[in-house]
Backbone:
């Protein structure tokens, strides 16, 4: 078992306690370590009448994946900051007809370093995070989210 | 009472029966007529721990508003077509701290006419729809969705 204090168990607890919708749409943290972050969600709670996943659910799981990655990063840096989504783009490439996973595409080290520097200097910073929804082996959606983090006062 | 066969009651039934998530997030069709389309949603089911609306919920209500407008348009045209979201952009301008509404910004007549022509000629067409979330009088998010419609076979 992992002893990472900011791994899957930590993030699952934060998602479930901080977002009213997270448990309802069945988001489960599958992987959260230095190699990546993957959320899993079931089709049933997120389906439309055609038996494919609703675009709003695919977006929600994607935006939570980016949030979880940033929340883990900030926790590991002992950085007391809140993260919110500021802008996003989403492309729907193919329908999702089964349970699905949201994979965070790790941000470039240089972008993360700039983000960390801005947080130190200005108490706020922004970072773009890319997330792919995969169903089986194929990429079904591509999400680009620009997140803003702000240090908590005090 | 309105006697519009494709008004609020018709769209509410379609939303509730076609999207597993719609009732859970409390989406209610407030207005659906030639002057516009407005969906309403409660904060409680869509809140995060800070008492503001979750970005995924704001997106979901926006994407459903665009879908509902197109679904109403196609029904009125006696056009048997399915509508899906293909691409989207969303800007989050300010937090939403109360129940909120998604207002469809009516597409330009020329764009709707092109969309209708493509559906007739090629059995498929695409239309961009803009939706604003408003809480009180201020615009909280701006959504641009590109929707694809495809005629049902037969």
Residues:
């Amino acid at each position: 078992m992992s002893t990472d204090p900011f791994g899957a168990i930590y993030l699952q607890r934060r998602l479930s306690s901080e977002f009213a919708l997270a448990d309802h749409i069945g988001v489960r943290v599958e992987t959260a370590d230095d190699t990546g972050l993957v959320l899993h969600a079931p089709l049933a709670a997120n389906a439309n009448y055609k038996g494919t996943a609703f675009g709003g659910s695919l977006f929600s799981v994607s935006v939570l994946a980016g949030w979880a990655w940033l929340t883990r990063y900030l926790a590991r840096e002992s950085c007391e900051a809140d993260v919110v989504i500021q802008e996003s783009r989403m492309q729907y490439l193919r329908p999702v007809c089964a349970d699905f996973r949201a994979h965070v595409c790790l941000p470039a080290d240089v972008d993360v370093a700039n983000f960390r520097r801005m947080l130190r200097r200005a108490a706020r910073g922004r970072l773009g995070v890319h997330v792919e929804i995969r169903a089986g082996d194929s990429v079904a959606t591509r999400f680009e989210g620009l997140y803003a983090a702000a240090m908590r006062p005090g």
In short: Chain A has a mean pLDDT of 95. The first helix of chain A runs from residue 8 to 18.
